[in-house]
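TASK: fixed-backbone design
INPUT:
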């Protein structure tokens, strides 16, 4: 499996950067190409790189990749990591994890830009964390899982940039340890079983379509 992952990543990057589409060839000509990245079956694939500015403001840097397989469907992968600490005052802000989301884009017939407007999705996530600010702390005891639904709206602000607004609701579950620092040690106060349905994420994401010229631009053929 480990050997297969690099091949998959290379193939996806090739699809995105070479703007694979039947529209790139003259009508009536099929033929073959020496370019190993050219796969005519993968029409309309787009690659997006993004960051959630809301997380960045909360000092939790993140980066995401989204692959648009068609004007209506995309797969989003997001990861975040913050490992801040100040041992002298027992302050910790630590979180690491990620999520995957399948998105359906609700667009009318005749639209001219991929991944624009309303979208709904279903996501799954996994995180670990340790939050403590001097008096009490909360630390995940193993992974904390999540699953639910997302609604969003993506607004183009330039040829290669979108701002994507989103909100997610769903279930979260896992084990949490509540503790407090005492005499240079950490004392467990209680064990908590997390089982909750609530608002789980807010997104104000800056989305970038990498590429040059007409490669990987979020435009499709005019109807």
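OUTPUT:
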């Amino acid at each position: 499996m480990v050997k297969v992952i690099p091949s998959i990543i290379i193939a996806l990057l090739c699809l995105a950067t070479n703007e694979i589409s039947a529209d790139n060839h003259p009508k009536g000509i099929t033929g073959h190409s020496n370019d190993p990245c050219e796969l005519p079956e993968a029409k309309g694939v787009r690659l997006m790189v993004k960051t959630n500015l809301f997380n960045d403001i909360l000092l939790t840097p993140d980066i995401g990749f989204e692959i648009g397989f068609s004007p209506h469907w995309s797969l989003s992968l997001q990861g975040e990591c913050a490992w801040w600490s100040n041992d002298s005052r027992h302050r910790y802000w630590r979180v690491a994890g990620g999520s995957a989301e399948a998105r359906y884009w609700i667009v009318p017939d005749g639209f001219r830009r991929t991944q624009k407007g309303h979208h709904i999705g279903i996501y799954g996530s996994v995180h670990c964390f340790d939050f403590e600010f001097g008096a009490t702390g909360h630390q995940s005891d193993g992974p904390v899982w999540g699953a639910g639904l997302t609604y969003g709206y993506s607004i183009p602000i330039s040829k290669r940039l979108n701002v994507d607004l989103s909100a997610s609701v769903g279930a979260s579950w896992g084990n949490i340890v509540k503790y407090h620092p005492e005499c240079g040690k950490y004392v467990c106060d209680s064990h908590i079983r997390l089982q909750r349905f609530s608002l789980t994420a807010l997104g104000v994401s800056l989305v970038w379509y990498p590429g040059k010229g007409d490669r990987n631009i979020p435009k499709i053929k005019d109807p």
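COMMENT: Residues 1-43 have pLDDT under 50 and may be disordered.
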